Amino acid sequence: MPLVSMNEFLPKAKANKYAVGQFNMNNLEFAQAIVEAAEELKSPFIYGVSEGALKYMGIEFTVAIAEAAAKKSGLPIALHLDHGSSFEVAMKCIRAGFSSVMFDGSHYSFEENIRLTKEVVKAAHAMGVSVEGELGTIGGVEDDLSVDEENASLAKPEEAIRFYEETGVDCLAIAVGTAHGMYAGEPNIHFDIIEKVSKAIPVPVVLHGGSGVPDEMIIKSIAAGVGKINVNTENQVSCTEAIREVLNKDAKVYDPRKYLTPARKAMIDVVKSKIQLFGSSNQA
After folding, report:
1. Which has fewest Cβ within 10 Å: 66, 105, 171, 185?
2. Has 170 been annotated as catalytic?
3. Per-residue pLDDT tens over the stretch 42-60
4. Which stretches of the chain are assigned E, i.e. beta strand?
């Protein structure tokens, strides 16, 4: 099966009150772990690729790996640019074979964010590619971007509704109190914002910073209207912990397969638990 846009499965997720996971691809083992977990549970999913991961893996390898996963598994898989910083980056990814892109204009003024996002939507939709927009500023650290908690800003429901109406994005990430990275304490998620926005627009709300959010908060977010949830840090942590455990046990290990195999297994377990939590099992 070829890679598909998020419109192949997100409308169904919103209608049936479950969420599809975006799991970030950082190397081959991440890609393999994610698709293996999804195959076992018959779930659609999204490979998220940040600009930092693109630089690390190379755009040609990234697309080839995702296409191989889609062909082998037969699952509906979207390859999605995560936090795209410009029209040019989004177009480069589309030309290379991405089936979905995010334009993150949250650091611009509200009007400029609308203007720039509309440009991406117009070009992407002409190519059958889905688009995610973002409103409000999500705190935490992702790649080289760091947003202090005091500089994170919640999305205003009325602005989010107008943003959707003017841009026509296929899903909308709104800042509701989650953050990138792991949490020191519990996040303070504003479920009222999710609910107000979700009831007023026909596309799903996206929850960024899904790693480390307590299960009951995830369930409540989905009930409020979240249809896409992003997870990266938990996979990174489980991968690194598994590698560290192998190397700490035996300093003579040098074959990467000896520590990357348990790392991949650890990530499979994380992804399976998220798919089950999000309710997307058997929805492929």
Report:
1. 185
2. no
3. 999 999 999 999 999 999 9
4. 20-24, 45-50, 77-84, 100-103, 130-135, 139-142, 145-147, 171-174, 179-180, 205-207, 226-231
